[in-house]
Amino acid sequence: NASQSAEPSSCKVGILQLLQIVTLLHHGWSLHPFDPKYPLFVKVVDSVRGSPASNVPVKLYKESAEGSWELLRGLPELTTKEQFVAGLYKLEFDTASYWKSLGLNPFHHHADVVFTANDAGNRHYKIVVVLSPFSYSTTAVVSEPVE
Hints:
Layout: H1 2-5, H2 9-26, E1 40-46, E2 51-52, E3 58-63, E4 69-74, E5 87-93, H3 95-101, E6 111-117, E7 125-132, E8 135-142
Parallel strand pairs: 1-7
Antiparallel strand pairs: 1-2, 3-4, 3-5, 5-6, 7-8
Family: Belongs to the transthyretin family.
Protein name: Transthyretin
GO molecular function: hormone activity; thyroid hormone binding
């Protein structure tokens, strides 16, 4: 049956976007170069253009004991090994300013990635965010503890 063997066009687009992301990751681009003294490594991909989205403003927050978010800093060096203690963190990506700079009117104004850091600065967290004007997705690779 021909209808069963045909791939939906959305599947083809998704596969192409995935291939673009894999290619970009393979070439090692990021918002800042990987440096072992920084335990947090962030990459942002513009899935519309299939290229790095290197000028997306990013802020890092840590949850306080009272449950509120405390701003730590922005890129390029989000945090050092000594500052990156175990706890709950939030990366806030200002996606609206990025898309508006390209002449697009996005649905999301921010893409937030909330995650738990364990073992303080003894692990490296590599976080990838894939953006489009109407969606975003994220993935992470967390290294084994390093002494």
